[in-house]
């Protein structure tokens, strides 16, 4: 055990050093799956699995902070989760309230200037949880160094549907012209409202399932963002799992850049001399647009 610990710490230090040399994702979203299966495996009551899971969430936020991840979105309660027993739902709601109140009084929240907010159909949640969300929002309103976004009563398709309804209302009242609707208009109508919560760079899912379960489908750029699926249940998720996930994101970013460069070279090769000047103009504009997008996205 002692020896295992030394190996683990060494590996963690090595990976930390490696990932720090490259670009750190700005926004990580996590599907914290496997709390109940973890409890089943230990032979303890299932609700305790969620309690251990919430402890991991706290560590996860520490690691994000250490590594410079600015935005963390956690899937705390999906709209599908409402179908669980009322006892379990009540336990999860109480746990989120407890954690929010702890976060409000935790000096780390204020040292990190961490803004806490919720995304989802918050009005469907019990009123004491809505109050706790409001308290956490009020206590951290001015903060802008780190963002903790709690997805509660959240469903990705529903979020898009609500955005479409909002836009339809605005078109009807003349505030918005249908022809002006583009990607940024849609982003601006999501619960995440484009500006404060940028698109997701990396989605992590624990617990062995390889799907993103209606989580931030628009913000994940239609699954274009990097995804990391791992076997450990959420309560067992360790810093090295996060570091491995970030490494996957970094490899993915390099691949994207290589593919973009290859495309530009192919395009130039396909041009005759007469079209070359024109093509170079296009490429310059494309590169400058990409740089702007990169700066905005990071
Ligand atoms: C999924 O595991 C987990 C949840 C539905 C609840 C997660 C909520 C928390 C950990 C609270 C965190 C909140 C804050 C504010 C820190 P599961 O129940 O689906 O597990 P299973 O896959 O084993 O069934």
What does this structure look like?
By secondary structure, this protein is an alpha/beta fold. The protein is 56% helix and 12% strand. The protein contains 10 helices and 6 strands. The chain has helices at 2-20, 35-42, 46-67, 86-105, 107-111, 127-139, 156-173, 183-188, 239-270, 273-297, and strands at residues 27-31, 71-78, 114-119, 146-154, 202-205, 226-229. The chain has a 6-stranded parallel sheet with strand order 3-4-2-1-5-6, sandwiched between helices. Helix 2 packs across helix 3 and helix 3 (46-67) runs parallel beside helix 4. The structure holds farnesyl diphosphate. Farnesyl diphosphate binds next to helix 2, helix 3, strand 2 and helix 4.
Unreliable spans are: 290-298
- Assign the structural class, choosing from mainly alpha, mainly beta, alpha/beta, alpha+beta, or little secondary structure: alpha/beta
Helix amount:
55-70%
Strand order of the largest sheet: 3-4-2-1-5-6
- Distinct ligand kinds: farnesyl diphosphate
Keywords:
binds farnesyl diphosphate; 10 helices; 298 residues; single chain; disordered C terminus
Please write out the topology:
Layout: H1 2-20, E1 27-31, H2 35-42, H3 46-67, E2 71-78, H4 86-105, H5 107-111, E3 114-119, H6 127-139, E4 146-154, H7 156-173, H8 183-188, E5 202-205, E6 226-229, H9 239-270, H10 273-297
Parallel strand pairs: 1-2, 1-5, 2-4, 3-4, 5-6
Helix pairs in contact: 1-9, 2-3, 3-4, 4-6
Bound molecules: farnesyl diphosphate.
Farnesyl diphosphate is lined by residues 32-37, 50, 53-54, 57, 76-77, 81, 92, 95-96, 99-100, 150, 207.
């Amino acid at each position: 055990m002692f020896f295992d610990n030394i190996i683990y710490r060494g590996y963690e230090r090595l990976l930390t050093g490696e990932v720090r040399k490259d670009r750190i994702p700005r926004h990580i979203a996590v599907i914290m799956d496997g709390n109940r299966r973890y409890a089943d495996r230990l032979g303890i009551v299932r609700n305790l699995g969620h309690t251990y899971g919430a402890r991991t969430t706290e560590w996860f936020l520490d690691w994000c902070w250490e590594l410079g991840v600015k935005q963390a979105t956690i899937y705390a309660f999906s709209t599908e989760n409402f179908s669980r027993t009322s006892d379990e739902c009540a336990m999860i709601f109480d746990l989120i309230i407890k954690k929010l109140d702890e976060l409000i009084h935790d000096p780390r929240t204020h040292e990190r200037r961490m803004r806490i907010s919720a995304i989802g159909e918050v009005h469907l949640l019990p009123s004491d949880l809505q109050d706790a969300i409001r308290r956490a929002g009020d206590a951290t309103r001015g903060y802008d160094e780190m963002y903790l976004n709690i997805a509660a009563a959240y469903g990705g398709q529903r979020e898009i549907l609500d955005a479409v309804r909002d836009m339809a209302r605005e078109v009807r009242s003349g505030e918005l012209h249908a022809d002006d609707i583009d990607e940024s208009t849609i982003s601006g109508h999501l619960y995440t409202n484009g500006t404060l919560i940028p698109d997701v760079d990396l989605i992590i899912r624990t617990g062995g399932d390889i799907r993103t379960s209606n989580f931030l489908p628009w913000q994940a750029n239609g699954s274009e963002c990097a995804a990391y699926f791992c076997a450990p249940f959420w309560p067992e998720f360790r810093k090295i799992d996060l570091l491995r996930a970030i490494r996957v994101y970094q490899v993915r970013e390099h691949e994207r850049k290589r593919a973009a460069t290859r495309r530009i070279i192919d395009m130039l090769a396909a041009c005759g001399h007469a079209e070359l000047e024109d093509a170079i103009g296009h490429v310059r504009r494309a590169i400058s647009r990409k740089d702007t997008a990169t700066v905005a996205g990071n």
